[in-house]
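User: Teach me something about this protein's shape.
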Amino acid sequence: GGIVLAAGGIVLAAGGIVLAAGGIVLAAGGVVLVLLNFYMWLVVLEFLAGVAVLVKQSRLNFISHKLQIFCSL
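Assistant: First, the predicted structure itself:
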């Protein structure tokens, strides 16, 4: 009987180790997801900043172009 109990205890301990390992993997996955989210936000913000710069530049170009036409008259 004692051997069966000991074997059961070993199986339970092994199961606990597997669960702990699974918990570590989940925690690591959570960290990776947070980092990916952060990175995605950075990319989105950079993209928006780039668009804003392009819009500003094109507006400036448009204005300067109009001024050139006006000055050449």
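Now, about its shape. The two ends are 107 Å apart (CA to CA). The first helix runs from residue 2 to 72. If you'd like, I can walk through any region in more detail.
User: That's plenty for now, thanks!
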